[in-house]
Amino acid sequence: MNNRGLQKTLPLALMDDHMSGELLRRAIEKRGIKKKHVAQKKGIEQGTLSRQMAGKHSLTLKDLREYADILDCEFEELIIDIQPMEIIGKHHDGTIYVDDVTSKIEQIVPPMTLPASYKGIWEDRGPMNNTLHVFNGNYILNEGIIDQTCYTQLCAYKITQSELTRLNKLNDSWTNAINMGFIYPEPSGKFTIGSAVTAGRQRPGVDLVWAAPIIASFHSPLTLGWQLK
User: Fold this and answer.
1) DSSP assigned state of 211
2) Of the CATH numbers 3.40.50.720, 1.10.260.40, 2.30.33.40, 1.10.600.10, which one belongs to the domain with range 3-78?
3) N or C, which terminus of the chain has less Cβ within 10 Å?
């Protein structure tokens, strides 16, 4: 739905003033803009802006549209509580480097609402050449069951620890159990994995823990409104 359509239907489901003010506060802080500068551009006193942010002063649709223009943000960001998405690892040169479980999980805030189960893989090809791959994390919960929707698709997947050990003994240089590739079923119940990087490279007879189709890929996501948290 575009902004115009969203704004027409919004009165039916507009959140209370307190939540609207809280989302406005988050949007201002996220961009590092001083409140006095926002208030000046809006043509109001800084105290009025503070009361709006605290939910003590009503925010109209006109106010929200003007703040969206001032902050150069999507109108949706000021009316819907958009949750950040977890990035489970970084894909580089054919390998996904997963953060240690003791590390703080990296998150990215999308410019639109996404299901809470969605997760991302950051593919890094240089400062100005990166891609965010998105998949449904619910597939991770179905360990041992590889859904047919994964077949012949680009997927995030995880192999068993014993499989990782076996492949490394074959000098296949599998750095991590989690990676991306194309999944092809075999009659034995195992899978052939096609490389997502090197055309024609395949590894047959692989045991999988889980696999999840890549739903969408966003090239240079930070230029498309995504923001690292």
Assistant:
1) E
2) 1.10.260.40
3) N
